[in-house]
Amino acid sequence: MGFMPYVAPEQMMKDRSEYAHKGIARGRSVIGLEFADGLLFVAENPSATLHKISEIYDRIAFAGVGKYSEFEDLRIAGIRLADLRGFSYGREDVKARDLANAYSQALSNIFTQQMKPYEVEILVGEVDGDASGTAIYHVLFDGSVNDEHGFVAIGGHAEDLAETLKARYAEGWDLATAVRTGVEVLGSPDGRTIDADAIEAGVLDRTRTHRRKFRRLEEAEMTAILAG
Asked: Rounded distance, CA 101 to CA 143, Å?
């Protein structure tokens, strides 16, 4: 028989946390910002095809950092859950809070029951009605959920980015101000200026007359905003 050394549960959880933190810290950050007309997610992402920011449902968006294959699995699972709930009940019954709770449960189970935790952090954002209906949920690799307000940063340099945002953020920004500030803050830890073609940005715009509130900011629009 093979000998299995005893590892205290506390040490096991600590080791898994450190492992996940290291994986997440290697990835580029994502910033979430509330602005006058909705919610902006912005990230440094040179890839034009591997998205960190995506639509989940009519008024709900998703952003992830860490290991791409793992947060992509979570994104797809969230779309399936939202579609099922919308089909079974009604489209208005699909809420970001319910998706965040489902993600929390899944990540908690993975963290406690599997040998390797997911190396991810995710954001689930929603716009519903007026500004009071904007919500941002931050779900960590161990299933912890935080209800964020105004702004949030995840991934590498998240603490530094959050401190910078705390000093600079103001309610009621227009989209252009939110985009320019988000891009400047993303580059601030290294003192870099990030070009428009290396930025991925998605917006939940509550003023859109279309049922689906999500749209991507294309490179031409990003270039114009940053130049302005």
From this structure: 9
